[in-house]
Every structure is written in structure tokens, then in C-alpha cells.
From TrEMBL:
Pfam families: DHDPS. It is found in: Cytoplasm. InterPro entries: Aldolase_TIM (IPR013785), DapA-like (IPR002220). This is N-acetylneuraminate lyase. GO terms for molecular function: N-acetylneuraminate lyase activity. Its EC number is 4.1.3.3. Its main location: cytoplasm. It comes from Stieleria bergensis. GO terms for cellular component: cytoplasm. Belongs to the DapA family. Pyruvate binds at T49, I211. Keywords: Carbohydrate metabolism, Cytoplasm, Lyase.
Amino acid sequence: MDFARLTGLIAATYTPLNERAQLKTDVVPAMVDHLIQQGLRGLYVCGSTGEGMSLSSADRKAVTESYVQAAAGRVPVIVQVGHNSLDEARELAAHAAQCGAEMISATCPSYFKVTSVDALVDSMQVIASGAPELPFYYYHIPALTGSAIDMPEFLQLAGKRIPNLVGIKYTAPTLFEFQMCQSVDGGRFDIVWGCDEMLLGAYATGAQAGIGSTYNVAPALYRNLVDAIEQQKWDEARRLQLVSIEMIRTIGRYPFHPAMRCVLGFQGFDVGDCLLPQPKLSEQQAEQLRSDLQSIGFFDWAL
């Protein structure tokens, strides 16, 4: 399949919610404008960050439509359509195509674990068939799906059976496998990195794009990091990656995504709290988080 490979920083977007845990999509246009102005090169919708797995299919469709409309073709919108029901996932893929998304992506089913490469290929084939005209990225995140299938083996088999498979969103710390995936079939596949705190290592092993949660709140930091890498200023790149690691460790002292939603609130984007079963930060926790971020200079260099 002919497609344009992803490049640069792509935000794994949050799903705005109100105090009743209902969608608040009127916030989306301002968020999208901000991300594009900050140099983000794409939007990854309804993934782990966007709590796609906690949303109803109807809400996932509404979120997809809101981001596609807000992006208005300025940057690609990649819609994560994975579901424990493959029929539901295929329908979500078809909807993404119908409403104008540029690409689709999917995790594997996770309640009944995928334990063989054949089962993974069969499952992804069903999902990808819902939007055969769109490039499809498998979303490899074994920490959440419990599926640790060998990815080079998956690409070799799936590449023969899924016509619109173009790559992987690779969210695992195994850089050696990430590098090997890039070499499969002469570099045919687009392997996109998904661990923000290891972006430098990923670029060193051939990455051209990253999809991440913290790109939402610290785009300037990551832009500067990528610039330093491209200019081969390695000492500066290592320094900036360490800043990223310290930021992620600071936010990670709290439940991560609830804390990230608080940080977006600090920056003027009220996206509400996470859906259950993820917790809500207390007012005391939120103020402590603000103080912790101030202590590392976050508000001086994040945007």
C-alpha cells in the first residue's frame, strides 16, 4: 500500500470529559489548534491516553469525529479502534474511514490473551478489513494487552495477509526488537516509537516519529530534543532526554493519566478527570503536583 510515513512528534490525545464523566468535545478544537501551533505532526485518538478502551463505541465515534473535524486535514488523525470484540473493532475502523481519518490502529484483544502469531494476524486482519483503504498500524503495548508476540515474526506473516498493514505503534522498552522490526522486508514497515522517556534511544536506532502522552504538555521540550538529535548535538540531546525522564518520574509519583489531566488543566485545558477504574486526584494531590512541577522548572520550559 502506498502511504506517507509518519514523522516527528504525534500527540496521543486525551478525551475531554465533564464532571459527570460525559464527553466534552467543545474543548477539542482549541486543544488541536494548540498542538498544531506547538509543532505536533499528528494526532493519535482513542488510544491508552484517550481511554478508548473505557469508552463506549458511540463515544469513541463521537471523539473521532471531533478530532477529525478539528484537525481539518492539517495533520493526520490516527484512530485507535482496538476492542475485545473484533466485530466492534471492525465497525470502528469503518467509521474512522467514513468520517475522514487518515489512518487506523488497533491493539489486540486483551481479556482472552493472544498467545500465537497466527491468532494475532487473524485478529488484526479482521479489524483492518473494516477500512481496507486506510493505512493500518498494529499497536504493540504488551504491558497492557498481556500479549508479547514476537513483532518481527508478526510483520513477516501479517505483511503477506493484511494488505493495508503499514507498520507498528511500538510501545515497549525493547529497543533491540524495535530496531529489528525496522529491518523486516527491507525496511518496508513504518515502526513508530511509543515510550516518551526513551525517545533519544529510539531515534538512535532509526525512529522517525514518536507517539506520546507527554508531548501534549511539554511539546517545546521534545521539539528541542528532536532538533538536538538531528543536529547531532548529543550532549544536549542527552540533557533534554534526562529532563523528560525527570518530568515523567515527577508526574508518575501520582496515578499517571489522572495527573496528566491535571497538568493540562494547569495549562488552560480543562479535560476533566479520568473514567473509572482510574482514580481522581484530590485537590491536595493536585496542588502538590503543581508544586513538584514548579520545583523542576516545568512551567518555564514545557511550552
